[in-house]
Amino acid sequence: MALQISPRPNDVLESNAGLKQVKVLVCTETCTLNGYTFCGNHQRLLDTLNQSAVANSMPLGKDFLPLTQVEVSLPTGENKCAADASVRKSSILFVGEKSEGQPAISQIKDRPIIFPMRPKTPVAVEIHLPLYILRGQIYAEAWQQILDIVDRADKFIALTNVSVYRTLDKAASTFDFVAVNRDKIIYVSESANSTESHFLAKDPMVTLGNLS
Questions:
Q1: High-pLDDT (> 70) share of the chain, %
Q2: Is the dihedral of CA 136, 141, 145, 151 positive or negative?
Q3: CA separation for the pair 156, 30 (Å, rounded)
Q4: What is the DSSP letter of 154?
Q5: pLDDT band at 52 (very low <50, low <70, confident <90, very high)
Q6: pTM of full prediction above 0.85
Q7: Is it the case that residue 2 has pLDDT exceeding 90?
Q8: Given Cys at both, which of 58, 138, 162, 171 links 178, Cβ 3.0 to 4.6 Å?
């Protein structure tokens, strides 16, 4: 995994009035990272990851996701803290967004409406990634199948009401929203039970913060 860690916070991003901080958990095959990333004030995390609307208008990396106030958890059980880190997007399995007590903003339903949108229907799916299984909902138009949703140009796809299961130790957590790296998906299937489990944890930052 390509990871750059700096001893100083990213003052340029933190001082930019056009950006907001978003609390996230970033999971890769070699570590997990808890911290804050940045989005445009009127953009979604999904837009920032896909660069669909940010492009060059904001000082955000194209191939790297900037993080600040980072705690890195390694498979050995070791934890590292860094003021600043940048994670290569191609190495990310998924990014879970945490609302920190604020009302969750839907990455699907509440995005700014620029043109009339056709209604979408939630579809329960199970997504298998290296080390993780994700169960949640993707949103499809009336004519779309699961393949139509996942086989698209966007690098990251949206999953809501998500249960995340770690295959190594059966640890699990929940998120309102997760952005999944499409290139890391092993397979995806329809799921009849997307959000229930007897071993769900209440705090995703604690449970999935360590891969040991």
A1: 69
A2: negative
A3: 19
A4: -
A5: low
A6: no
A7: no
A8: 162
